[in-house]
Specification:
By secondary structure, the chain is mainly α. The chain has five helices and no strands.
Length: 112
């Protein structure tokens, strides 16, 4: 999962042309300069976080249902809590890394 995330971020944010496209998209589809930042936060923070948290919930949905009914023993319940903690922490870390890459990329586009 780490390798896929790292490769995806390098593909999306490393080329200068991609950063130009992100900047142009935000400029074209926002109402003005003030809302361009909001569009960036929606696209690069809220949407990835929503998608990754939804994926984490889907991956653990069956175990969570079993836990709510009381069918999981204590060790298995602790494993479920650890899995949920790890998945949500991964989602938060990946989202913040994506935001950081976008901010640094935007600064590079502006300065060049």
């Amino acid at each position: 999962m780490y390798l896929g995330a790292a490769a995806g971020m390098q593909f999306a944010f490393l080329p200068y042309d991609h950063q130009l496209k992100f900047t142009r998209f935000a400029a074209q589809h926002s109402a003005g300069a003030a809302s361009a930042g909001s569009l960036n936060s929606i696209l690069f923070v809220y949407m990835p976080m929503l998608g990754l948290c939804g994926l984490a919930m889907l991956l653990t949905a069956q175990e969570t249902r079993r836990h709510k009914v009381g069918l999981l023993d204590k060790p298995r319940a602790l494993v479920l809590v650890a899995q949920l903690n790890w998945l949500f922490a991964f989602a938060a870390a990946l989202t913040m890394t994506v935001l950081f890459c976008r901010l640094i990329g935007g600064a590079i586009v502006v300065s060049l």
